[in-house]
Amino acid sequence: MSDMTKTPPTVRGVRAYMQREVLTLPNFITMMRICCVVGMFAEAKRPVLVLVLAFAAWLSDGVDGFVAKKFGSCTKLGARLDQYADWSFGVALLYTIFVAEHFTWYNAPLLLLIGGYLLLRMRYLAVETTEVAKLKTFVQFLGGVVILGGHAFETGLLLVIGYLIVGSSLPLMFKSLRSYGSQEK
């Protein structure tokens, strides 16, 4: 049964809600990251293009939150959209690295561990992202972009540096999962 005393939303009210909660600059930046992710999947065999898209996505990950806080346009939708964009960007990084390296013996354990983390993180979608998780994400995304740079420019040194950066995020992964588990209790 519906509540008949409640007035239906007006066009002006819907428009105001859309401008305040949905059509914000931070949400637009986050949606651009999702577009970069789609491009990464679509062009996975073009390493230079994938690197450009990944770099743009990595930069946008920090910019959207900064802009939201700076201009007071933080929204629940934006926070959730950012989580999904981060998750999809992580999957795109793993996928494009797999495509570039053909899933070799030296990257398989690390990439499988990060993939497992992404799956575990889905369990905690309702909890707030912690500071340690944000740092972990920043480090892993940076490492992934550096690895893709190694493939785009065919430079082994960048591959090594990228894997070292990603490897350095492992303690942060475990800390962030613990922090999510403690929030859920």
Automatic annotation (TrEMBL):
Keywords from the named record: Membrane, Transmembrane, Transmembrane helix
Keyword Transmembrane helix: yes
Keyword Aminoacyl-tRNA synthetase listed: no
GO biological process: phospholipid biosynthetic process
Alphabetized GO MF terms: phosphotransferase activity, for other substituted phosphate groups
Origin superkingdom: Bacteria
Transmembrane stretches, start-end: 48-67, 104-120, 141-166
GO cellular component, one term: membrane
Protein name (record): CDP-alcohol phosphatidyltransferase
